[in-house]
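The data are set out underneath:

___
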Amino acid sequence: MEWETHRPSAPGTPSSMSSGNSGGSSARTEKTPNFKQLSPSPSVAALSKIPDAELRMKGPDELVRLLRRVEMDYKSLLGEHGNVVKDVNRRLQIFVLETRGLKENAHKLQEDNQELRDLCCFLDDDRQKGRKLAREWQRFGRYTASVMRSEVRR
């Protein structure tokens, strides 16, 4: 039977690969790092506080310089956001693989459980047959003893 060789965490499951031991610890028990809040850069925050009238008074070169700085800040934020999304997707993939492994283990355990139940039923049936046979032999022994007694009396 396979249940005799079953381990809590099979070598191919992500939980055993990520935790470094086969004690069944899950990636869910690891502390998930808090991601930095994506917020506007100081230059964008300062620019948003400038009134529209003051922006209209600035020259085209100054506005272009401000625009380029804001563009660079948003490109940086988009790159950081992309890294966060990649990390979240990687973790999600690990959890999906772990879930798949756990489902496979649960299925194997259910099969082993059913096999053990069937074996218990077989053994119980066999025990019942043994008890019935013992009762029949006991009756036969009593009958034989009574026949012998009656023969001896004659």
